[in-house]
Amino acid sequence: MSDLICKGTTTCEGCGMELLARSIVEVLGKNTIVLTPPSCSAILTGFGDQTCWRIPAFQSNLENIAAYCSGISTALEYQKREDVYVVALAGDGGTVDIGLQALSGAVERGHRFIYICYDNEAYMNTGIQRSGSTPIGAWTTTTPGGKEESKKNIVEMLMAQGIPYIATASVGYIDDFKRKLDKAKDVNGPTYIHVLSPCPPGWRYEARETIKLGRLAVDTKLYPLFEAIDGDIRITKKVSKVKDIGEYLKLQGRFRNITKEQIKSLEVDAAKYYDKLVEMEVE
Amino acid sequence: MLNAQKQLMKGLLFMKDKVGIFATDVSDTKTGTWRLAKPIVNENCKVCGICSKYCPGLLIEMEDIAAIDYEYCKGCGICEVVCPFKAILMVEEAE
Question: What span, in angstroms and rounded, lies between the C-alpha atoms of A108 and A124?
Fold first, then answer.
């Protein structure tokens, strides 16, 4: 099924988003309509008369991708085409900052679509500007001394809205992501998957470490993997032996100037959030 | 007729029996030319398929041994890192 995206895509070497996009079409098959906002995923939708997709794809605006999903989903419902999936592949800027109102509205109205956010923790396509999803202490071109605020938790926000299926995933555990997407596609309503997708030029690391970093983020508890079906949380990757957070930070050039207090706060917040998830978990 | 005009006519004739708007794909962009280091598979390969699962371009096929599509491989080196048997090693590209 990998031939649903052609070879020769001009994403950076070691791109987590490219692997994610190929996994999406592998799970969903050819009866899929993909939407991308202006972002790195727009590279796949193409430029001029060229495209990388071999399935229908649509280039939306940055702030309204979820609104376009609603429209397409409603049209399919009217045509009684339940076999066609509507998928949005948006970055973190287009999801947690600019696209938030459209996403929130579409979830509230309850349209059937799958929203996948690949979280590379900044506006990478326009040249590494800070987004709401950038973690504390991280360098970007607009936070040259390191970001001072912590990361926005979009998953909790959507869970508060009562979304039927929501999950977090990481590029480092791609089978786990595929399983979650397989579940999401059968849900008759809005579904959301938040995927951590390391970015070599933006995070300032060597392209070969993409998968390693995707795994380290989970193993240090910084990025817990879980899913929630109708609000019932289940942790899909239990972390029994926590890895040192320093190992994750020192691989990335963007954390070169992080202070000791910021590392401490990252560590404490991560442990606290993980414990909260364990407490809320349904047996 | 000028050469450019001939090209245009040829293009229009090709489009005649196509319905609606269509786009061409980017397969003619040979991203293999970007490569600075080349992954070489050695005899340790157990054909487990982990590299093919994590290759961002899904360019590795499992045959008798992992077979990499060098025409498009950008040489990121992810396959070297994820391989549990050290069966893929990155070798610097010669000029």
Answer: 29
What is the residue type of B23?
Answer: A
Q: CA B54, CA A70: separation in Å to the nearest integer?
A: 32
pLDDT at A139: 95
- Confidence band (pLDDT; 50, 70, 90) for B24? confident
pLDDT digits (tens, 9 = 90+) for A107-144: 999 999 999 999 999 999 999 999 999 999 999 999 99
Say whether A9 and B76 touch across the interface (CB within 8 A): no
CA end-to-end distance (rounded Å), chain A: 36
**B5 in contact with chain A, both atoms CB, cutoff 8 A:** no
Residue-wise pLDDT for A154-184, tens only, equals 999 999 999 999 999 999 999 999 999 999 9
Fold classification of A2-280 (topology level) = Rossmann fold (3.40.50)
- Cβ-Cβ pairs closer than 8 A, A with B, add up to 85
Q: Which of A39, A18, A10, A6 is nearest to A198 (CA)?
A: A18
| Minimum distance, in Å, between the CA of residue A104 and any CA atom of chain B | 31
Any idea what DSSP says for residue B34? G
First-to-last alpha carbon distance for chain B, in angstroms, is 43
Of A9, A18, A209, the CB nearest to B26: A9
Tell whether ipTM is more than 0.85: yes
Site of tokens 């900044």: A122
Rounded to 5 degrees, φ, ψ at A133 are -95, -5
| Class at the top of the CATH hierarchy for domain B25-92 | alpha beta
Q: Which of A115, A97, A105, A194 is nearest to A155 (CA)?
A: A194
Tens of pLDDT, residue by residue over B35-81, are: 999 999 999 999 999 999 999 999 999 988 999 999 999 999 999 99
Contact yes or no for A50/B23 (Cβ under 8 A): yes
Q: How far is Cα A188 from Cα B8, in angstroms, rounded to an integer? A: 48
Residue B5 tokens read as 């005009």
Q: Domain ranges for chain A, please list them.
A: 2-280
